[in-house]
Amino acid sequence: MFFRMIAGAFRRQWKKMLMIALTVALGASIATAMLNVMLGVGDKINEELKAYGSNITVVPNSQAVISDLYDVEDGGEKEEYLAEETLGEFLTIFWANNITDFAPVIDTSVTVKGKEMKLIGTWFDHHFEFRKKGTVYQRDTGIINLRSWWDITDGKWLDEAALSGDAYAMAGKRAAEALGVKAGDKIEVKGSGNTESLEIVGIFESGDDEEECIFTTLFAAQRLSGAEGKYKKAEVSAITSPDDELAQKAAKNPDLLSGDEYDLWYCTAYVSSICFQIQEAIPEASARAVRQIADSEGKILEKTELLMALITLMSLIGATLGISNLVTSSVMERSAELALMKAVGAKNGQITRLVMTEIILTAIAGAAAGYFMGYAFAQVIGQTVFSSAIEMSGMVAFLVTVLIIAVTFVGSIPAMRTILRLRPSEVLHGGH
């Protein structure tokens, strides 16, 4: 009898039920899309921000101390280096998989066509292999990703794999103009340790002081500076979690953390914990966060997540109001039917359960449709904004279910109050 009455209500008020289902579906779809994007947006935003350079710099300990004491960017007159073999240690730390790119850098003053210029040696698109205790670590890395904003105005990127040898270079636009060279030209470069003939394969615009420099392979720069097997610093790009109170406390002094705090900090991809692990792996090095980039990542992520949360909240408020109006309207239309049920002995609780069952069944259908609509919506956002798919989280399905149940009950409160106030004598005799 109970289910026959529900089926009858659906047949008589199918338009109202359809509108309730669509309202729930709309709220569920937006909540599903926003929550999935919010949970997955951290890595996506970090990946996007990696296009703007490294967020960690690794330098020799002595250079870091002098930089801190005297607020200078180099270590003074004496050149300080790290052994090239230490680069492989980046791939052995706990958060190695979060390190997306890294490149060693060595700079030196050289003379080209009688002009003194700054030459920088690094990896461009380098295939790196490192063996330690029987394990082989491999990574394709270099500044081709760390300098993705460079605009190649003449020639091409220096392709280490395609070119034979390492006597090649790229010149900044201002350096090329000063030297009067273009892609394909060769230049004689005199350094403190050697003289090299380098072929210019590309001219780039960077919008900063790097346009005044010549970039070459790490090996060529090492020979020119007389520092074979060494590098001055390494630029590291890592996917990190936004700093919170724990990360800020650890950044000041990890020794102040309790055991549980230390474990949580160490096993979370904070920029400070990644720097700490690099220093553990390379004791003679100091790893520092590039604060402008690291802080920007956290702020952008927090604001994006807040925006997603507000959109979700507003969609649920809209769904609540829509359900409230529709259910109340439905109850008012059925007032005579419900009053008659009361007149023949039905209790308020029985009538409320009947109406709520109808609404919940309708909401379940709407929520199911909305979840799949939200899945499609999330993929559209992922492909449009991040050019990649958004992974669907099982937690979102649970959260959406809880939220829709809450929205349905809250939206039905006015209708339930209307049912409780129905008086059969007034309704059935036209007084209501």
Written account of the structure:
It is a single chain. The protein has 432 residues and is α+β, with helices and mostly antiparallel strands. It folds into two domains: 2-47 and 298-428, no CATH class; 55-289, no CATH class. Helix content is 53%, strand content 20%. The chain has helices at residues 2-12, 14-49, 61-70, 143-146, 173-179, 218-225, 245-252, 259-266, 271-281, 291-333, 335-343, 348-386, 394-421, 424-428, and strands at residues 56-60, 82-83, 99-112, 115-122, 126-132, 135-141, 151-155, 168-172, 186-190, 195-205, 213-217, 230-231, 233-238, 285-289. Strand 3 and strand 4 form a beta hairpin. Helix 12 runs antiparallel to helix 13 (394-421).
- Gyration radius, to the nearest Å? 33 Å
Average pLDDT level: 83
Supply the number of helical segments: 14
Looking across the biggest beta sheet, what order are the strands in? Answer: 3-4-11-8-10-9
Question: Residue share in helices?
Answer: 40-55%
Shape: elongated
- Distance from N terminus to C terminus (CA atoms, Å) equals 28 Å
Low-confidence stretches at least 5 residues in length (pLDDT < 50)?
65-72
Order of helices and strands: HHEHEEEEEHEEHEEEHEEHHHEHHHHH
Number of domains: 2
* Class based on secondary structure composition and strand pairing: alpha+beta
Number of strands: 14
| Biggest beta sheet attributes | 6 strands, mixed, barrel
- Strand percentage lies at 15-25%
Oligomeric state, counting identical vs distinct chains: single chain
